[in-house]
Specification:
The chain is mainly alpha-helical. The chain has eleven helices and four strands, in the order E-E-H-H-E-H-E-H-H-H-H-H-H-H-H. It has helices spanning about 40-50, 70-80, 95-110, 130-145, 150-165, 170-190, 195-205, 210-220, 225-240, 245-270, 275; strands at about 15-20, 20-25, 85-90, 115-120. The chain starts with 15 loop residues before the first strand and ends with a helix. The model has no long low-confidence stretch (mean pLDDT about 80).
């Protein structure tokens, strides 16, 4: 995509459009070889212009591609724009991961929910951008679906904490078992409906065929683990409600460690690709 955007009345810019997507970038407004040597206020002004002085029209989703770091641009977005969430993209290099962690902590401090972290450590080694795109899109759909069930963690934490404060061990166990029952039933339903979620995700994202195919594989396989993921929500809520944060952290570290090992083993060593990562 190239060229200069047109203006509506000399002030409001019309976004460039291709394949049904509207795009606006400072790169459209300056020559390709012109460096953008700007201080913080100029960056914030340009960002505000991109958001408020562009004729976006009705949108399903607005995605803002931010530069690395936690500077003025990110802070302006977090403070002045009602963000639905943030997706952090990282490569496996140490410096990139340091920036990713900083970004994660910044969004936590400004109360912006994290929708997901796209890690190219495994999929990036397949040498196929379509697979990476499918993983990113599939992770987004997965996170949106599972955000609905955050009550299994937060609700269980609150109810268990109340029972723990009263010294009512039976009620603590009852809350846990109810949460586990909901997790199993909901997880089985999600797993059974995984093909439907895959089709819905493909329709919503509207990506090219190879990206959609990779996304479909990821969603279908990832949702098969829905019962176990939701059970983890319930157990974590129970542990946190009892004030055993250290135990909860250890459990999550173990689960994530197993996930990382299996990603490398199934995805790279056995050559299962996106299916192995899922």
């Amino acid at each position: 995509m190239h060229g200069r955007p047109q203006t509506v009345d000399g002030k409001i810019l019309k976004p460039m459009q291709n394949y049904g997507l509207k795009v606006m970038s400072m790169g459209f407004l300056v020559d390709e070889e012109t460096p953008m040597i700007w201080r913080g206020p100029m960056v914030m002004s340009a960002l505000t212009q991109m958001l408020r002085e562009v004729e976006w029209g009705p949108l399903d989703v607005l995605v803002v591609d931010m530069p690395p770091g936690t500077g003025d641009a990110q802070l302006t977005m977090a403070q002045q724009v009602p963000l639905a969430g943030a997706v952090i993209v990282s490569t496996p290099q140490d410096l990139a991961l340091i920036d990713a962690r900083k970004g994660l902590n910044m969004f936590k401090k400004v109360d912006v929910p994290l929708l997901g972290i796209v890690d190219t450590a495994v999929v990036g080694q397949f040498g196929d951008a379509a697979l990476l795109g499918g993983l990113a899109a599939g992770s987004l759909v997965f996170d949106v679906v599972f955000t609905t069930f955050n009550f299994l963690r937060s609700g269980t934490t609150g109810l268990v904490a109340q029972a723990f404060g009263r010294g009512d061990a039976l009620e603590e166990q009852a809350v846990l078992w109810r949460a586990l029952l909901i997790a199993v039933v909901a997880g089985v339903i999600l797993a059974a409906l995984s093909p439907l979620f895959a089709v819905a995700g493909q329709w919503f994202i509207g990506a090219e065929p190879r990206v959609s195919a990779a996304m479909s594989v990821y969603i279908r396989i990832r949702l098969l683990a829905a019962p176990f993921s939701l059970i983890n929500y319930a157990i974590l809520g129970y542990v946190l409600g009892r004030g055993e944060g250290g135990l909860g952290l250890m459990l999550q570290a173990v689960l994530n460690g197993i996930n990382i090992v299996l990603c490398f083993l199934l995805g790279l060593e056995l050559g299962w690709g996106v299916a192995g990562v899922a």
